[in-house]
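Hey, quick one: can you model this chain's 3D structure?
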Amino acid sequence: MSSAIFNQLITLLDGGQARYRVIEHARAGRSEEAVKARGTQIEQGAKALVCHVKGNGIKQHVLAVLPAHRKANLLMLAQKLGGTRASLASPQEVMMLTQCVFGAIPPFSFHPDLKLVVDPLLFQQLDEMVFNAGSLEKSLLLNVEDYQRIVKPEQVEFSELA
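Sure thing. Here's the predicted structure for all 162 residues.
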């Protein structure tokens, strides 16, 4: 399944004339492992979390993207989206909504029921962002402006210092 996501990403990025490169590396899912395997900086990393936001009549799956060196404040995320609470999705839900395992989720949503939000700090780090591209052994180093232009994500502040 993850190769299908990788191919979707490449097709989308090529269609948008994005500046990127593929990095093949040792298996890595956690941000700290990925930094070593890729030879990149932690601040370049884009971490994607599948969450449930609930309360106030809201029941929404969210793909929340943040800089890899920060942590998600799920309560803040829920409140900014109009809910009262948020939690991480189960491995089964993650697979259903992203076709990826934990740690391999790219900062793109290809599922209609998965709302994409990005913490604006991601765009203020460096010129390039890096993320696992549907695989624990394959990452993409992507120009941040190209990501923002192609994806046009909703920006929501929800990260805090780790």
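One thing worth noting: DSSP finds five helices and ten strands in the chain.
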